[in-house]
Design brief:
By secondary structure, this protein is of the alpha/beta class. It has a single domain, classed as Alpha/Beta hydrolase fold, catalytic domain (Rossmann fold, 3-Layer(aba) Sandwich), CATH 3.40.50.1820. 35% of the residues lie in helices and 17% in strands. It is built from 10 helices and 8 strands. The longest helix has 15 residues. The protein starts with a strand and ends with a helix.
Length: 276
């Protein structure tokens, strides 16, 4: 895998998948970017440049652990852009990685042509997701065989009496079958320090980020799954309002990794947006 150096000297790795116009991709987690695969076949139409966040995949563990903070990771994205020689780029983020991509667009609006936020997390702009929203969305799955146990675990988490996130995993998938279980296992973060420090104090500046995004001229896609408890459609719609030129797409029957649930729908929608 090719590598480059971040401003602080940390050696970072990335993968290049497919041909065509480049799209720089930022994974969530922070977790090994391998879970993104080729985004359901998006690499058929675009050259995906997929970053391994520091301390994950084949990227090195930094000397300074505070550099795991979300706003600090923006520097790594900028270093990768410079390394691959893109004056202006299409940028795609997934899950927690959308916070990095959002803060990148706020800091470097002149460097972003199009911004695709998949399963968007809105911590960077301080949009809270209420327990009521998640419970109401979860009820859409009431006919699933796994629903009773998963819903009980979700209620306990919301009430502060439980913490069994593994039990609620089916709610984050469009269907809870063997491929979904395998993907869930592959996408679990292994660097607990990176996860713990991602949202450390100072990681987000919502007011200034919102102000910068209001002046950002990039076209933006926010794509979330109909069933995505991490990024409920109602929250994604609120997030979309932070941008001057944003499109919200809700993928039917999909969860937090929509390319798994219906690759054709996901690729067609995302590719159409990137073609612009």
């Amino acid at each position: 895998m090719p590598t480059f150096y971040a401003p602080d000297g940390t050696e970072l790795s990335y993968r290049v998948i497919g041909d065509g116009d480049p799209v720089l991709c930022v994974p969530g987690g922070p977790a090994d970017s391998v879970y993104l695969g080729d985004l359901g076949g998006l690499s058929t139409y675009y050259r995906l440049i997929v970053l391994d966040l520091r301390g994950t995949g084949r990227s090195a563990i930094p000397r300074d652990a505070s550099s795991y903070r979300c706003d600090r990771l923006v520097d790594d994205v900028e270093a990768l852009r410079e390394h691959v020689g893109l004056p202006r780029m299409d940028l795609l983020g997934h899950s927690a990685g959308t916070n990095i991509a959002t803060q990148y667009a706020a800091r470097y609006p002149q460097r972003v042509s199009k911004l695709a936020l998949i399963g968007p997390s809105a911590r960077a702009v301080d949009i809270a997701i209420t327990a009521e929203t998640r419970l109401e969305l979860a009820q859409l799955r009431k006919d699933e065989p796994w629903f009773p146990a998963a819903f009980a675990a979700l209620q306990a988490i919301n009430e502060g009496t439980g913490s069994d996130w593994e039990a609620v995993a089916p709610f984050f998938c469009g269907r809870w079958d063997e491929p979904a279980r395998q993907h869930h296992a592959a996408s679990r973060p292994t660097n607990r320090e990176a996860v713990a420090l991602f949202a450390a104090e100072g990681a987000f500046s919502p007011a200034s980020t919102r102000a910068a995004l209001a002046a950002c001229d990039a076209r933006v896609l926010l794509l979330t799954g109909e069933f995505d408890l991490n990024s409920p459609p109602v929250s994604a719609a609120e997030f979309a309002a932070a941008f001057p030129d944003a499109t919200l797409a809700v993928q039917p029957g999909a969860g937090h990794s929509p390319w798994l649930d219906d690759a054709d729908w996901f690729v067609a929608t995302t590719a159409a947006f990137l073609r612009g």
